[in-house]
Amino acid sequence: MSHGAQQLERLKTFSDGVFAIAITLLVIEVHVPRLDTLDDGAYLAALANLLPSFMGFILSFLAIGALWIAHHRMFGVLAGYEPRLMWPNMLLLMVIAFMPFATALMSSNPLARVPEVFYSSTLLAAGLLQLCLFQLALRPGRIRDGAPPEEVNALRWRTLALPTAATAALLAAPHIPGKNNILLLAIPLLARIYAAVGRRRALRRMNAAVPD
After folding, report:
1. First CA to last CA across the chain, in angstroms?
2. Mind giving me the DSSP string for 156-177?
3. Coil, strand or helix: which one is 81?
4. What is the pLDDT of residue 82?
5. Residues 184/169, Cβ–Cβ less than 8 Å
6. How buried is 122 (Cβ within 10 angstroms: 0-12 exposed, 13-18 middle, 19+ buried)?
7. Which residue(s) pair with 143 in the sheet?
8. pLDDT value of position 211
9. Which of 155, 163, 162, 144 is nearest to 198 (CA)?
10. Count of Cβ atoms closer than 10 Å to residue 155 Cβ
11. Residue 138 in contact with residue 159, Cβ under 8 Å?
12. Angle between helices 51-76 and 187-209 (to 10 degrees)
């Protein structure tokens, strides 16, 4: 393995570790109810009180999971190690590592405006940092040979999904705190739509470049 390939693998391994730890820490904030009773109703009520925590866990798990999937795909098309990616990648990982705190704050105060705004802002920061990282990484000359251009462009466009949904949730948070998180469930659909747009635009450019 060349030095550049080894450096790229170290960067990927470190990043995967941060993603894995952050996504695991989410469940720690879902506190187990401990009741001095055997009454079924009391336990059902305690579990019902944890619904905001369950919802926060699911939302953040899916968001971090989507970020990791995109991150994994992006590193899979790179030709080699690029030192300029170190700090943009590190800043993205910093926000990912912060996600369990933002999730716990939101889940513990599901109808409060400030925690909801804080949570949506954290997701927006992660989305924008991912967008910047991908725009820097997926430049011409940094893509491995054989990577389909339409799929590379789809990767670029996919990064718009999280900022779009997080911006919508952020704008809605002061008006409908709690319910604004429903907008985040659109992230997978938006990712598919943006990816399709990216593929079509790349194919259109390729077809236009082919001489008659």
Report:
1. 43
2. HHHTTHHHHHHHHHHHHTTTST
3. coil
4. 84
5. yes
6. buried
7. 78
8. 61
9. 155
10. 21
11. no
12. 20
79 three-class SS: coil
Helices 51-76 and 86-108 pack at an angle, to 10 degrees, of 170
For 123, the token pair is 């997701």
Give the type of residue at 58: I
Structure tokens at 165: 């949904």
Amino acid, res. 176: I
- The pair of structure tokens assigned to 11 is 């960067």
Instruction: Please compute, for residue 202, the number of CA atoms within 13 A of its CA located in the half-sphere on the CB side.
Output: 17
Name the one residue in this structure whose structure tokens are 């730890």: 21
Output the six-digit token pair for 168: 């919508």
CA distance 110 to 172: 14
- Token pair belonging to 8: 């790229």
The encoded tokens of residue 181 equal: 């998180």
Written as six digits, the tokens of 53 are 């925590």
What is each CA distance from 73 to 3, 66, 137, 151, in whole angstroms? 22, 11, 12, 10
CA 194 to chain CA mean position, Å = 15
Dihedral sign computed on CA atoms, order 158, 138, 19, 22: negative
Amino acid residing at 73: R
What b/e sequence results for 170-179 when a residue is b if at least 16 CB atoms lie within 10 Å of its CB, and e otherwise?
Answer: bebbeeebbe
The overall pTM is greater than 0.85 = yes
- Which residues of the chain are modeled with pLDDT < 50? none
The token duo for 57 is 């866990």
